[in-house]
Specification:
Layout lengths: L18 H5 L5 E5 L5 E5 L9 H5 L21 H6 L5 H10 L4 E8 L4 E7 L22 H9 L4 E5 L1 H11 L8 E6 L7 H15 L3 E5 L18 E4 L4 E3 L6 H7 L22 E3 L6
Parallel strand pairs: 3-5, 5-6, 6-10
Antiparallel strand pairs: 1-2, 3-4, 7-8, 8-9
């Protein structure tokens, strides 16, 4: 049988990182969506041996180790990569440095058919486009954590990117290996995380408004008279099955009005342990638009 969620850490602090599921020696923890669409661990109590490892692996049950930041303004020198990125393209520059040293890069990818966001591994610069562009809802990470541990044990350089709480999760999951010279971490300055269920509801509403089927969408764009250089890139762009597209007004678009007003974020995001100028990662990327 499945137990109720919230038994590993309190439900309002759970970040849905999946470290508990990845580390369970019995494989009896499943990450499932709750009624709102957020991922939580569910325990198959019949298989649980009550070892307590899940609680020990949970980053929310541990002290946060953060360091003072040094700030730089930077952007990628390749204009093509700059325009393919949501912001300045710094992630691509760091990732290429790792890949040139026969390393691997782990980050959030988007499946346009299922509309799932999930962490995956890329091993070449040509594959980095899968990890570019902002995704404003939660990525599934539990399935990738064991692969990261295996790579580090083999002395393969790993760049792990994600939100700050996902960085906390990989460090907690790795234990002593988190201090390895083969691990670099890169977090994205985060406003909070929504979920796929909310995005699906938004897209369905827009299809009814436009009377068209949406085939793809972007959370951020670099175009128009009020584009990214003026700090107005946080706009949704919808692509339709008839070949047309439509950029949304960021002041009227229901998704970003709700997101920026903190209406449908995950509960833990309202009291994040990882925000602030002191950071948990080796690198933190944030917008510096309009500077």
């Amino acid at each position: 049988m499945l137990d109720e969620p919230g038994k590993i850490c309190s439900e309002d602090t759970c970040v849905g990182c999946g470290a508990c599921a990845a580390g369970c020696p019995q494989g009896c923890i499943t990450m499932k969506e709750d009624s709102e669409g957020f991922l939580f661990p569910y325990i198959h109590t019949d298989a649980c041996i009550h070892c307590g490892l899940c609680s020990r692996l949970c980053p929310q049950n541990q002290a946060v180790q953060k360091q003072k930041s040094t700030f730089y303004m930077s952007w990628h020198k390749d204009d093509a990569i700059l325009m393919e990125s949501s912001s300045g393209g710094v992630f691509t520059a760091v990732a290429d440095w790792v890949l040139k040293r026969n390393g691997i890069v782990v980050g959030a990818a988007f499946d346009r058919e299922t509309r799932e966001v999930y962490h995956t591994i890329v091993e070449s610069s040509q594959q980095l486009s899968r990890l570019r562009l902002s995704k404003y809802y939660q990525s599934r990470t539990s399935q990738i954590l064991p692969d990261v541990k295996t790579a580090i044990k083999k002395e393969t350089l790993v760049l792990f990117s994600g939100t700050a709480c996902q960085i906390a999760a990989i460090k907690s999951y790795l234990g002593p290996l988190a201090n390895s010279e083969y691990l670099l971490t890169f977090d994205i300055l985060c406003h909070g995380t929504a979920n796929k269920k909310t995005v699906e509801a938004y897209l369905h509403d827009r299809e009814r408004q436009y009377h068209k089927t949406i085939t793809d969408f972007r959370f951020r764009i670099k175009e128009g008279h009020d584009g990214w250089q003026l700090g107005s890139g946080t706009r949704m762009k919808l692509f339709f099955d008839d070949g047309t597209s439509q950029a949304q007004n960021k002041y009227l678009d229901t998704y970003f009005v709700g997101f920026n007003s903190n209406i449908f974020l995950r509960e833990c995001c309202y009291h994040c342990r990882y925000c602030g100028q002191e950071r948990i990662s080796d690198f933190t990327a944030a917008d510096f638009w309009g500077g």
